[in-house]
Design a protein that fits this description.
single chain, alpha+beta, Thiol Ester Dehydrase, Chain A, 5-stranded antiparallel sheet, two-stranded antiparallel ribbon, 3 helices, 7 strands
């Protein structure tokens, strides 16, 4: 399992008239968490695209438990629970406020897509090598 924490300050433009973070902004918070998680592993989306692979979101789930407000410092916890072995990768997210109260949970599924063909592909070997130390993987599953 791999975990990463990212903090973000809620901007005024991300809130609604009720001083609550607009629900649509959580997709962006999750994206920040994913991008920084991947960057912390020494990889980037840009590098993956240079290798000929894109990662479109194919599924997004959110559960809103408590609101975040303007100027809150929120922590986005991003977790990879399983080593991606096929054409998809699943990121689990939890968003906390400064008092460590859980505000929102979510799960985002992305596919690895070959840029040239537009077809599903597997995770680039270089990215897989970065993740491998965090998971106990049966070598037969990777074949």
């Amino acid at each position: 399992m791999y975990e990463h924490l990212t903090t973000v300050r809620v901007r005024y433009a991300e809130t609604d008239q009720m001083d609550i973070v607009y629900y649509g902004n959580y997709a962006q918070y999750f994206e920040v968490g994913r991008a920084e998680c991947i960057r912390d592993l020494g990889f980037t989306y840009k590098k993956m695209e240079e290798m000929g692979v894109r990662m479109p979101v194919v599924k997004l789930e959110c559960n809103f438990l408590r609101p975040a407000h303007y100027d809150d410092l929120i922590t986005i916890k991003t977790v990879l629970k399983e080593m991606p072995l096929k054409h998809e990768i699943e990121f689990n997210h939890e968003v906390f406020n400064e008092k460590r109260k859980l505000l929102t949970t979510g799960k985002v599924t992305l596919f690895f897509i070959d840029i040239k063909t537009g077809k599903r592909t597997v995770m680039p070997a270089e990215f897989k090598a970065k993740l491998y130390p965090f998971f106990e993987v049966n070598l037969l599953d990777t074949l």
